[in-house]
Amino acid sequence: MERHISNLKQLGAKEYRFSISWARLCPTGKCADAKDHEKRGIDHYHSFLDLLHAAGIEPFVTLFHWDLPQALQDEYNGWESAKIVDDFADYVRLVFREYGDRVKNWITLNEAELGFWADPIYLTGDYPESILKRYNDSILQRFTDEQKQQNKGSADFFGLNTYTTQLVTDGDKDGKNKGVDWTGHTCPQWPQAGSEWLFSVPWGFRRLLKYIDNRYDSTAVPIFVTENGISSTGNGTDSKPELNDQWRIDHFTSYIGQMRRAIEEDGANVQVYTAWSLMDNFEWSDGYRDRFGLIWTDFSSENRTTLFKQSARFYSDLIQVFL
After folding, report:
1. Is 106 domain-assigned?
2. What are the EC numbers (predicted)?
3. How many angstroms separate the CA atoms of 254 and 43, rounded?
4. Which domain holds residue 242?
């Protein structure tokens, strides 16, 4: 932990987003009873938050980042069951009770996919019309009028994870489905990242910020960019790390430049920008192959040695400009 905080301080970072692992605090997924708490996990986050506070770094904490305790999946299929609501609420109460005095910025779920989640919270209280048309009551439980009122306006900021852009056409040739089905396209001229799904499309970022501002009113609910970055695959090895990543610097320069245009020319109220990620890490099904980090991680070394890439030094200089 100390090394990571030291790296953040060297970067000059004033905020850091990370996620708390539900299973690390309550391995069974049940947090209502203290006997099911894992003290080592709870203490770990206390220590980490204390270090962040001492370094003057503001934490942004995500409550759920796709790591559902296996016991709840086995018991009732996890998020497919309404039973998850009470167990998640008990987990959140534990987190707030333990860490609420040091964390002001909370993110409920990682990467909630925009309209499907955003319309109920920031606009109407209900799902978008296209979703209601696509899914029947047996698949998508409808909100009650009371729930719609509870949904609407229940967030203080608009958390945005964004990486790439696609051109979209109506999936129905006669164009009658009105957005219920669609086909995504990419352009051969767009620079492709190591991740096969990720293309660097800076102008798409600006358009997205402008769309969010227009649809959800970022004046009332500011936009926090909680993830944005680009990956490499197969560039460098642990014995010969790729530290000169000018292509990543180009990506951040273009994306942050388009964000600034969205702010200054389009009026989007963007207040936070967080690069993904501080260091190379485990990227889900892609494992350690795809490297998003500003800092190189040597996965073959016992203590996971880290080295600053050129993009880290660029980002550090950039941070100072905006402080």
Report:
1. yes
2. 3.2.1.21
3. 40
4. 156-323
77 and 185 assigned to the same domain: no
Alpha helix stretches (DSSP H) within the chain: 2-11, 22-25, 39-54, 70-76, 84-99, 115-118, 129-134, 145-151, 202-216, 246-264, 310-322
Question: Does residue 133 fall inside a structural domain?
Answer: no
Q: Look at the pTM and tell me if it is higher than 0.85.
A: yes
Q: Is residue 4 a part of any domain in this protein?
A: yes
Q: Are residues 179 and 275 in the same domain?
A: yes
d(CA 186, CA 168): 9
pLDDT tens for the 323 residues of the chain, in order? 899 999 999 999 999 999 999 999 999 999 999 999 999 999 999 999 999 999 999 999 999 999 999 999 999 999 999 999 999 999 999 999 999 999 999 999 999 979 899 999 999 999 998 888 888 877 888 999 999 999 999 999 999 999 999 998 877 666 565 556 778 999 999 999 999 999 999 999 999 999 999 999 999 999 999 999 999 966 677 778 999 999 999 999 999 999 999 999 999 999 999 999 999 999 888 888 899 999 999 999 999 999 999 999 999 999 988 75
**What CATH number is associated with residue 200?**
3.20.20.80
How many folded domains does the chain comprise?
Answer: 2
- The first and second tokens of residue 46, run together, are 């206390």
Residue 150 lies in a domain: no
Catalytic-labelled residue, pool 75, 227, 242, 302: 227
